[in-house]
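If you are new to this repository, start here. Below is one unmodified record pulled from the training split, so you can see the exact layout before writing a loader.
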Amino acid sequence: MNLKKKLLALFLILCITLVGCGGSAEPNVEQMKADLIGHNLSGEGSRWTFAALSEFEHFDIRSQQEQGDVIEYDVSMRLVDLASDTHYLADVLIVYKQVDGRWELTSIVTKLYKYLY
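And here is the target side for that same chain:
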């Protein structure tokens, strides 16, 4: 019976180690929005600085590509400037890299950024 307890303990340690080393889940939409706060987009002679989650009217992940520890998301967003109530369309590539088991935003590439109304 002592051997059974040791094997069970080893099995539990192995399971905990494997789960812990697997890294965190890929970023979801809410995490991406939060990560964008404080970052900028530019285009058509103007610049957008993400300041609040409520600026996102629409956020659509069109596609994603993953290679090793890097994920690239092709995202389309409709944004609203809360102070002026002006609306913008932005298409961007959002790139994450897995560092120490966590996904970190590494770059934002603006493909399209334009005034709507």
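Two things worth knowing about this chain: The longest strand covers residues 86-99. The mean pLDDT is 87.
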